[in-house]
Amino acid sequence: MPQSTKTAIMVIGGAEDKIHGKEILHNFFGRSGAAEARIAIIPSASREPAIIGERYLTIFGEMGAKGIEVLDIRDREQCNDALMQSYVENCTGVFMTGGDQLRLCGLLADTPLMRTVQQRAQKGEITLAGTSAGAAVMGHYMIAGGGSGESPNRSLVDMTTGLGIIPEVIVDQHFHNRNRMARLMSAIAAYPDRLGIGIDEDTCTLFEGDGTLQVIGKGTVTILDPAELSYTNQEKVGATDPLSIGNLRLHILSHSDRYDLRKRVPSFAAYRMAQE
Amino acid sequence: MPQSTKTAIMVIGGAEDKIHGKEILHNFFGRSGAAEARIAIIPSASREPAIIGERYLTIFGEMGAKGIEVLDIRDREQCNDALMQSYVENCTGVFMTGGDQLRLCGLLADTPLMRTVQQRAQKGEITLAGTSAGAAVMGHYMIAGGGSGESPNRSLVDMTTGLGIIPEVIVDQHFHNRNRMARLMSAIAAYPDRLGIGIDEDTCTLFEGDGTLQVIGKGTVTILDPAELSYTNQEKVGATDPLSIGNLRLHILSHSDRYDLRKRVPSFAAYRMAQE
């Protein structure tokens, strides 16, 4: 299959392959312009930004990117830096690493630099990728943390505000790997006007700007669609009481499956191929 | 609320309260006839049947049951025992403990004793309860074991045949506590003519024989309804490949919520009360 060169917003569930096939990172590289790519790496979610920045710099360098800069932002004031601003105005791809999503939002939310990245990504001028914490920040509402191994309940998930790059979704990452279904359900019960997207490790949800998403990588993407929600007691019960939730629609998507965000309908790769 | 004295099939997610309020065990005691109850305890799932049998014997004895027998079946031949057979023909309640569901099925499936229990439970003559392994055996298809922390895939769940007491369901227990959503989804993808029922610890699904189920206890019951399943690649992919599943309907039920098994529609306690 020829790889698309269209720009996209790439939401990666963490732990993407960095050694062998590197499917997801190659896809990012291609969609950022391949040999013409000028890539900005934002390692600010991490407590070891220099190390993680260098790791991705090496990977994209070996792929042959024309330019790569690590924007090692450790202070909000750096987001006014003219050189960095100039770089993100002219780059073709931005990659946000893993770490702590609260740290990433704290450093970048509502800064001139992030506004430029967001606007250019939403216009389709650049490919923006985020993995793990870099994925968590994509929605307007963000899962800051939470637990697993309990009945769905309000206290199972800590919600805050994300970067709002894809406002209509709530993203959860390392999804089945860290057993996060109950916390995403608890989040969606609180914000049933959003779409829940749980992304497994080494798996990526590609938003191509045409109102659909597509899955690549080794695992699955779980869609929790509350459009037909009939009932929840979310606002009525105590923080640790078990929730009631009626009528969620659930899809499990794997490689090359798509989902229409407007119609809220999945389209499965094997089914599409059989039709063609 | 007055406690129902109707017989029921009680499917308990394991780890039910045995010390404090004992809500679920009290409910079983009441539905088995309270002071008139003649209870059979089947501890055969356990590798320590004497200890676990004694534990429930003490609990139901303290509640005031008229008669209690531990049917400590360790060999299929015991299931032809005339005294045991006579006891289950005249008892008012049967309680199957936790342990290993394969062991329980191996000892009891297709024996005269179990046929009597099943027929009397299905006719509403007795209350039959099973907790943990005793819950797992309720369906025609049974989850014998499996894993968690992976994308849904065929190898995540080991399926075999259960006791078929409620043939139309596939039960999973310790559900959110042991993060079993992915394995129940994998089971339902394989048997989409069944209804998936995931029961949390200290939580019970009551089947009252009127085509509805009701939830009691501390946690939630998850209903995975594949009636509108649009697609799965379950039969086409390798055992460890991630699954695609389209259009599962998902409900989370908590205390006093009900679900109509024929119409496949939930009815929430707080909503019902607001209507009344």
Automatic annotation (TrEMBL), chains A, B:
GO terms for molecular function: carboxypeptidase activity; peptidyl-dipeptidase activity. It catalyses: [L-4-(L-arginin-2-N-yl)aspartate](n) + H2O = [L-4-(L-arginin-2-N-yl)aspartate](n-1) + L-4-(L-arginin-2-N-yl)aspartate. The keyword NAD does not apply. The keyword Nuclease does not apply. Transmembrane segments: none annotated. It holds the Pfam family Peptidase_S51. Keywords: Carboxypeptidase, Hydrolase, Protease, Serine protease. Its EC number is 3.4.15.6. Coiled coil: none annotated. Exopeptidase that catalyzes the hydrolytic cleavage of multi-L-arginyl-poly-L-aspartic acid (cyanophycin; a water-insoluble reserve polymer) into aspartate-arginine dipeptides. Belongs to the peptidase S51 family. NCBIfam families: cyanophycinase (TIGR02069). This is Cyanophycinase. It comes from Stenomitos frigidus AS-A4.
